[in-house]
Amino acid sequence: MNASEFRRRGKEMVDYVADYLEGIEGRQVFPDVDPGYLRPLIPTTAPQEPETFEAIIEDIEKIIMPGVTHWHSPYFFAYFPTASSYPAMLADMLCGAIGCIGFSWAASPACTELETVMMDWLGKMLQLPEAFLAGEAGEGGGVIQGTASEATLVALLAARTKVTRHLQAASPELTQAAIMEKLVAYASDQAHSSVEKAGLIGGVRLKAIPSDGKFAMRASALQEALERDKAAGLIPFFVSSPGPTRVSGPCHKEGLWLHVDAAYAGSAFICPEFRHLLNGVEFADSFNFNPHKWLLVNFDCSAMWVKKRTDLTGAFRLDPVYLRHSHQDSGLITDYRHWQLPLGRRFRSLKMWFVFRMYGVKGLQAYIRKHVQLSHAFEALVRQDTRFEICAEVILGLVCFRLKGSNKLNEALLESINSAKKIHLVPCSLRDRFVLRFAICSRTVELAHVQLAWEHIQEMAATVLRAQGEEKAGKPPCGAEFPPP
Amino acid sequence: MNASEFRRRGKEMVDYVADYLEGIEGRQVFPDVDPGYLRPLIPTTAPQEPETFEAIIEDIEKIIMPGVTHWHSPYFFAYFPTASSYPAMLADMLCGAIGCIGFSWAASPACTELETVMMDWLGKMLQLPEAFLAGEAGEGGGVIQGTASEATLVALLAARTKVTRHLQAASPELTQAAIMEKLVAYASDQAHSSVEKAGLIGGVRLKAIPSDGKFAMRASALQEALERDKAAGLIPFFVSSPGPTRVSGPCHKEGLWLHVDAAYAGSAFICPEFRHLLNGVEFADSFNFNPHKWLLVNFDCSAMWVKKRTDLTGAFRLDPVYLRHSHQDSGLITDYRHWQLPLGRRFRSLKMWFVFRMYGVKGLQAYIRKHVQLSHAFEALVRQDTRFEICAEVILGLVCFRLKGSNKLNEALLESINSAKKIHLVPCSLRDRFVLRFAICSRTVELAHVQLAWEHIQEMAATVLRAQGEEKAGKPPCGAEFPPP
């Protein structure tokens, strides 16, 4: 394909993309396919001769779309939102065309420098403490990671290196393995599995700290665990927490690396009314959230800041000759390969630049506030129905709710909802209770979609409750051939 | 921005992309900017109010392009190629629009299933042993990682878990730390820094094995290191090698995990005449190469295969026991989050699908062969000039060469070439010799570009040699105000 055919096909693809997103409401949000559906639909080997673009485009609707879970449908309320916006897509097109690999400043100065400045812009939007910004002479700064999992792992590895060097400076006879054996990282018992994965990869033990009534790590529980572990000869070194408020005290006092991972919630901190959730971040060593979740920057774009960039570069720096360049020790330049796990990296800051400028801070704030309003609207609907209960305080765009009753009943409700495929939800477990999550996700979701979703949930609930009532009354549930004994 | 504005702006962007790539030869390959150039050119904070698309597009030429290293210029011969093709860019547009996060089968079945089948297609193109393919009931299979660094780390962690469990099964009293302290991984002394990084992250020691005249790990040197380390009570467990040929014997014999990382070279193995470089891969546990380097699939797309998928999922799977189900290991359901470091992942197999179909295997082979021909053409030019020498056998698209003479002389030559900015090269170090690398990179590079590049190098060499001659003769070098003492 040459440039002239790309001009034509690219414009067709732009229309396909616009058609897809304009018409997404009409597509069933969750697919009908069974595992293994795709393999029989396509050849077993790549073609020897080139095929036409038309043939491929045709196959998109025939082969791909029937198996897509439509994350941007306004009836998608599962997991967490993943960002999608037209400005970000335009920026990604440019990113693909420039196609530079920005592992060092010299590998493409614009790629590195725009990232540093965009991370400063975003840090200021969040009112991050000055210490996290790169500025012109700061010791901190931001970096775009692929995912929050990688940010957590990078933070944990930096903390591991720091504490190891510190201990070895005092006691040079200590081996790395002898230290690692005693290191302990902490996270809330409600923490994301990424923290557990980071501990596993980093080869250190991870302890879960009981959470409070709001599912946040309790400071007193953390303090108790620290005392107990220190008394047992262990070495606490790292705490990962979705919010800094409760844990910054103990971390500061004990000199632990505090990593704040607000993967989803972080976007909301650009609104002054939610910024208090980030109070205490001044005591953190690293902070991370995902603009690719809720700030309209398409995946992947996970924003991570550190107070001391040398903590990261000290953990990862390896400088082979072929990657060295003349400016690298000037202090002025940033080689982002030392801030991350991979070597290669795309020009992802273009997406931030396009989105921040085309929405403006006010536009982004309005977007966050609309989603929060929608979740409260859904919460209000649930509260009006006495068969249901709300299971956790609704703060941002997520509502955890369930039918009053057994886990089995709620499992049946979720099963009936996801089988009907009018909307899509996933469950979670809160203190052993099976709970349904209703997350405001799509950029295009409106109050009408939320209301329709709620009516649908109510209908499904009525059916499930009726089946349960009949079962209790000894009648055969619908479809059962024999009454229970 | 709504769909209708996106239709307009998206088409403008398609034209911008086509213009950029059609005109890239006219742009200076390496930018003129100094570190810190960008910050003064843009505001210190994000705008409060939305800006127009026109304002942003204007800034691309004013602010971004002056700082871009043009990796797709036909005068870019630095690092390694990074892939760029129109079909891949079209696929990326679709990937952005669908915007699903394919961490599990259910999160978007098409995203998972197309990836498994595309990795089979690619595995067959490379004539990988059947054991690496997923097929319908295989125990192996492929996964798209972000980079070769991640693939190496994933392989090392899987091997670490496997050997740890094995040893603990025999001696349950052994702690993980006690085992990790003794684990040793091996790589060639010419290996990529990513192996060193993986060892650092995984908390295991890495030993460099001397390479032979062709810069490949010597089997005898590996065998000696293994014997020495075992005698010292250490536990060899992992070998990373760019080619399997020499090391598969010792690895097989000693039961070590062999990871073959052919990041760049791997693409060439789709041509029968280069496939012999992969002989011995049947003894490897994992194999990886980067279609995003040389197979026209835009970054990121690093293809990794394993013989036993449970080796990966066993290392990373964090599903609690009570969630396991009978089909989990059947090969029917793949949850790729257990195969990689991050949780989230994009629909990257679309790029493979578009590229493989629109080029066809023959088109891809022709592309590889053309690049190899160009590197041999450059090699022939170098060999005709007795002032120069070739420093390593030219096998694929990379030519390592230098002026006969000191490292200082060659550093001066590279410096003069990269200051002139007509072409862009980077150096490497081969057995302490400073060597210039000439890598065939751009999709659009032709013999004429290679010839022009060589003429330019010859001119620069003449100047550098003249300066050296004058210096030796006691004359002041050009530009020096005082003769040396």
Automatic annotation (TrEMBL), chains A, B:
Its EC number is 4.1.1.28. GO terms for molecular function: aromatic-L-amino-acid decarboxylase activity; pyridoxal phosphate binding. CDD domains: DOPA_deC_like. GO terms for biological process: amino acid metabolic process; carboxylic acid metabolic process; catecholamine biosynthetic process. SUPFAM superfamilies: PLP-dependent transferases. Keywords: Catecholamine biosynthesis, Decarboxylase, Lyase, Pyridoxal phosphate. InterPro entries: Aromatic_deC, PyrdxlP-dep_de-COase, PyrdxlP-dep_Trfase, PyrdxlP-dep_Trfase_major, PyrdxlP-dep_Trfase_small, Pyridoxal-P_BS. The modification N6-(pyridoxal phosphate)lysine is found at residue 293. It comes from the Eukaryota. Pathway: Catecholamine biosynthesis; dopamine biosynthesis; dopamine from L-tyrosine: step 2/2. Gene3D superfamilies: Aspartate Aminotransferase, domain 1 (3.90.1150.10), dopa decarboxylase, N-terminal domain (1.20.1340.10), Type I PLP-dependent aspartate aminotransferase-like (Major domain) (3.40.640.10). Its cofactor is pyridoxal 5'-phosphate. Homodimer. Belongs to the group II decarboxylase family. This is Aromatic-L-amino-acid decarboxylase. It comes from Bos taurus (Bovine). The gene is DDC.
